[in-house]
Protein: DUF4139 domain-containing protein
Amino acid sequence: MAQPSITRLTIFPNNLNLVEKVRRIKLKVGINEITLGPVEKGVILDSVYPQAEGCEFLEQEYSSNSLLSWKVRSEKEEETTLRVVYLTTGLTWKVSYQVAVGKEDRFMDLSAWATVENKSGMDFSQVYLTLTTQLPRQTKQEEEEVSRGNLSESYLSDSKNFSYSPRYPITLRSGEKKRIPLFTSSHIPIKKVYLFDGAKYGEEVREEILLKNSLDLGLGMPLPQGPVYVYKMGLADRINFIGQDILPETPPEKEVRIFLGEAKDLEGERIQTSYQQLPSSEKEFSYKLILYNSADLPMTVEVVEHFYGEWTILESKPENYIKEENFVVYEVEVPARQTQEIQYKVRAK
Structure:
């Protein structure tokens, strides 16, 4: 019999794949045998769900040559559509990003590509592909949406999951890795940030770019985690490779940072100046942070200090800082070819 005329393939992030095959079949009155395949070795037989209008499915068999077959009863001779849906394994995908930073560090271009790997042992020829980060599990909220008949609305409004379907059919050969472009966004506004986090990174002052995953800025979609390769336009319009980082999973309207490398003209030092264990099981400690700027221009540095448990800053110089749940952020300007200090004292338990 003829092979399926339409195949749809959804690749989930946990090595689980949904296959839907649609074909036209001819039925005679009485008992008919329908055969489909060969199918993938990783097919989950319990998941196979065949449908054909006007048919009563009587039994299903899976043969050693990877063929699925059914015995069906038809009340009349006709041509109808067979639709078979099942789960299988062996196909995976992952995302990677490429960033091109402009010469003046004010804008960047962002491209995202998916790498699809086929280890299923079968070729998929001209399939309609969907790549998604949504795990095929239902939360309690999603179950309630289903009970109200709002599953598709719930899925479309989900801001945590990325889903992409090329507008054209794709061929995925067994053993092949194929890259597929997901999206490109140009002229995204960015801000260069110098970060000193002595507890995490030692004396290194990190050079990072900050961008917002906003629809107004040309993005605004859930961004899956993946490696990001950073390039920059140099002299004579040559493209230079700056470095590689991991872009974390980023929901819409959230800010994200990309590490460019160690700042050339900035260094930091973190020195503990006091420590006292109090009778109340609390402790008090002080630190001095020193920033060194060897450049001919003043540089603004973002300084992060982490705290755990219950804590209170008793003294701080400078007095202005941003307090978060487990850390504080100072923003200080370091004059050209000079140093700048931060000093604080904390009580914690």
